[in-house]
Amino acid sequence: MEAKSFQLILYVVFGVFILVGFGSLAAYGFLKKRAxxxxxxxxxxxDILVWGTIDIRxxxxxxxxxxxxxxxxxxxxxxxxxxxDTIQDEYIGxxxxxxxxxxxxxxxxxxxxxxDTLQTVPFSYFPLARYEQTFIQPANLFIxxxxxxxxxxxxxxxxxxxxxxNMRLRNxxxxxxxxxxxxxxxxxxxxxxxxxDTSQALIPLGAxxxxxxxxxxxxxxxxxxxxxxxxxxxxxxxxxxxxxxSFAHPRSSVYTWSVAHADARDMFxxxxxxxxxxxxxxxxxxxxxxxxxxVRVAPLPQFDRNGIAVTPSTLYAFAVPKxxxxxxxxxxxxxxxxxxxxxxxxxxxxxxxxxxxxKWYYPxxxxxxxxxxxxxxxxxxxxxxxxxxxxxTLLQTLQGVVVGTQTAETGAKTVLNLFR
Length: 420
Prior knowledge:
Layout: E1 7-10, H1 24-39, E2 48-52, H2 56-66, E3 77-81, H3 87-96, E4 103-107, H4 108-113, E5 118-119, E6 121-122, H5 128-134, E7 143-144, E8 148-149, E9 152-164, H6 165-170, H7 186-195, H8 214-226, H9 234-246, H10 264-269, E10 275-279, H11 283-289, E11 295-298, E12 311-321, H12 327-342, H13 348-351, H14 369-379, E13 381-382, H15 388-403, H16 408-419
Parallel strand pairs: 2-3, 2-4, 12-13
Antiparallel strand pairs: 1-3, 4-12, 5-12, 6-8, 7-8, 9-10, 9-11, 9-12
């Protein structure tokens, strides 16, 4: 996401929402009453500052939907979009001078990195049974059994397989791969052979420096094997490393990726990369980058078509800083924003380009093929968290195996330690 300093005044208020799915009416009514009780002793409303890395265009619809309600329990809510690469440092610096936000809307990696500075949302605000019925499986990462939740989920950004429709037709590809093994056989093998001596490429498997999602894609392979009948063992981790590295080995029949290539996303938008595993949030950016390329979407290939489908995802969630000036009001804002997800009169696909992290978000008869892929990926999503040190270790391991300075056997031990 590009660095921006846009701001948006959200006139966020409590209203009456008609809720759907898993008894949500009773749940949200309870949450509203609890927030109202906590605010009842206040004699004046409090303005709330929200920092987030979600594109401001995703937040604007909330303002449009909620600004029509009255009797709000707090004042204006100002959303400031922050650069995801710098928000941690900005946040720590803001705490030092007493200018921290009252609420955060950030990805789960950043939430866990900042967890010591965040307050837990008590179970009294969101009963555990209701939480587990409401949110998709990756949201369980936020549960702290003895306390509550380190954050409350909002969006889920799952990985999908983008492809260039022109290149598909030009290469005579009838169907996209559903299993990773298909990339080293049949028509895809012919594409590999055709591209190996050109500036074009099939897929950025084997990448470690010029593909921004290298660690995430490798993690997808690991998670898929871990939930298969094979399971994650030292042997299966070794085989995955060998498979991944084979796409970057010049002597391999599936050689398709090189450190000499440009950034994978730039290659895709430039028309020189056929398959680009990327996140849902990138869809419109990929389209805007080159309108002449017909960007299409398919589910991420799986390790085993008969196994459990597993797709890596990034969860975006609300978190309340410990030093929030008005934590009760911030929680009220959090719950009110969640109300948008529960309102059956909202057409969620019109409100957001990212799917909400709830279990009842299903495609309907009017959903496009792209929307169906996005929603299916939501339900197969899994999220993992690696510290910055662990992430660096993983990337160094991938690089070592790819360039030959580390054996797959040695790398497998590292992978096991990271993903157990």
